[in-house]
Design brief:
Elements (H helix, E strand, L loop, with lengths): L1 H18 L12 H6 L8 E4 H4 L8 E2 H7 L16 E9 L5 E10 L2 E10 L4 E9 L7 E6 L5 E8 L6 E11 L4 E9 L3 H4 L17 E6 L2 E7 L5 E10 L4 E11 L4 E5 L6 E7 L2 E6 L15 E5 L7 H7 L1
Antiparallel strand pairs: 1-7, 2-3, 3-4, 4-5, 5-6, 7-8, 8-9, 9-10, 11-12, 11-18, 12-13, 13-14, 14-15, 15-16, 16-17, 17-18
């Protein structure tokens, strides 16, 4: 009987030791698994408002020293003074079984300043990249929120009621982690902050060279078009698509590199980006067919499925040239 009691005591103590959480608020090094375990796994899609996101109490605190075990101070330099002490407050962990990366969302606190950062790690627990999303210093009457969808895309929204029009004005910006460049890229940029600017579509590649065979502008009208410009080689084209459907209530926009598969077929496909678009050239037309999930670049009820006709470029007037000479 004594041996049985002794065995139970030893077993209980062993389990208790295994379940004891590592102290992340001190200076003693910890294992990376203990660091990651401090971030509870989030169910996607995940949404949280700034009032809850930037709170700094009733949560685990990770010290500056422990943070530097796994992440260099340099990633936070744009936001805080890294010569002064700061602490990390875990928010959530975002991970998908098939992905090669996982993400840690954390509040970083230094004195009265608190900001939200997303940290990217490989499945082998190697730090890859970081992105500061927003902080408690940029209110200006806005309410902020973060939504992380299943892709995952990290979408920050700022909203407020315009005191003059009494209407909601908003800006939404979303980032995804691009494995090809090991950086975050913007895939959502939606705003009604400046209606005057939104009434005119600005083509960001308009002035680039268009000497290659397929380069040029293919359009329906000034609000529905695709522009192709010369890329880095004969099989690559830089493109910009913009469309407005359903009376302008459903808008789509995308800029990227299109690669030829053969003389009449091309594709847009970037590692880490779920959006895939096929392009087919026939005569003076280009037809788009959305194959992947491009929901972050367009409205819910419209797709990158359309056909555009190439705009003809007028020939120079020979008589005018001779007169000028």
């Amino acid at each position: 009987m004594k041996y049985w009691v002794l065995f139970v005591c030893i077993f209980t103590l062993t389990i208790a030791c295994k379940q004891k959480k590592a102290n992340l608020s001190g200076d003693i090094p910890v294992k990376v698994n203990d660091f990651v375990a401090a971030f509870p796994v989030a169910a996607l899609p995940y949404t949280i408002a700034d009032t809850a996101l930037l709170q700094t109490s009733d949560t685990t605190h990770i010290s500056h020293k422990i943070f530097n075990q796994f992440i260099p101070d340099s990633v936070l330099q744009p936001a805080i003074d890294t010569d002064e002490s700061f602490e990390i407050l875990p928010v959530v962990r975002v991970e998908k079984p098939k992905d090669k990366e996982y993400y840690l969302l954390a509040n970083v606190k230094q004195k009265k300043k608190v900001f939200l950062v997303v940290l990217v790690f490989s499945k082998k627990n190697k730090f890859l990249a970081a992105r500061i999303l927003f902080d408690n210093q940029q209110n200006e009457g806005y309410q902020y929120s973060l939504t992380v969808n299943k892709e995952p895309t990290f979408i920050v929204s700022q909203e407020k009621i315009n005191p003059e029009t009494k209407l909601l004005q908003f800006t939404r910006v979303g980032w995804i982690y691009a494995t090809t460049t090991s950086t975050f890229m913007v895939v959502v940029n939606d705003s009604n902050e400046d209606v005057a600017k939104l009434s005119v579509v600005l083509n960001p590649i308009d002035t680039l060279p268009q000497k290659n065979k397929l380069s040029g502008d293919y359009l329906e009208d000034s609000k529905n078009f695709i522009s192709l410009r010369d890329g880095k080689d004969a099989n690559t084209y830089l493109f910009f698509i913009h469309f407005e459907k359903k009376g302008g209530t459903c808008i789509g926009e995308l800029k990227g590199d299109m690669k030829l598969k053969d003389a009449t077929n091309a594709v847009y496909s970037v590692s880490g980006d779920p959006c895939i678009i096929d392009f087919v050239f026939k005569n003076n037309e280009i037809t788009l067919k959305e194959q992947g999930s491009c929901g972050n670049r367009r409205g819910i009820e419209c797709f990158f499925n359309d056909t555009f006709i190439k705009k003809k470029i007028g020939k120079p007037n020979k008589q005018a040239k001779q007169t000028h000479l």
